[in-house]
Design brief:
Largest sheet: none
Structural class: mainly alpha
Shape: globular
Helix content: 40-55%
Radius of gyration: 20 Å
Length: about 180
Amino acid sequence: MEGILTSALHAAANPKKRSEMTVTTFDCLDKKTARILFSVAEAVLGEGFLAKAPRFIETVDDFLNYQRPAQRDQFLLALLIAETTFGLTIGGSFKSFSHLSLADRRKILEKLRSSSQQLRRNIYAAFVNVSASTYYASDLTWPDIGYGGVSVDHPKILQQPPPIPWRPDDRRPIEP
């Protein structure tokens, strides 16, 4: 049943194309979900967030590779639901989420945050957590929050040229 719902929502989704965003090949996202993610991130982080996190979409796509398949599918489904229904059911307009103004998208996020339904609050939390953690993972944002980077030296083993042995002091042969 979930596959049918996802397929129907994917077919109905028509996210706004953005000149700031170049859509390439992704592992978990497709062009539609990447554009919806951009609209969600813009609502959470503000316009121009790509200046500090230029590989935002690619980073989220990479992070999704490390999630459980069910969690990844739920996040992608939440993006499709946001695009196809939130503008209508929460905002009251007939525009899809990505076609709404930034102010209207933020109003929708606020309604999700303060909703009495746990599912809507969870969608809000997922959107904010993914957007904020990905944004602040970019080293271009670190000076803004006063973070100077890692304060310990890298292990010596990482400073030698590849291949780096797995067990440098272990004399046993590495099995192929």
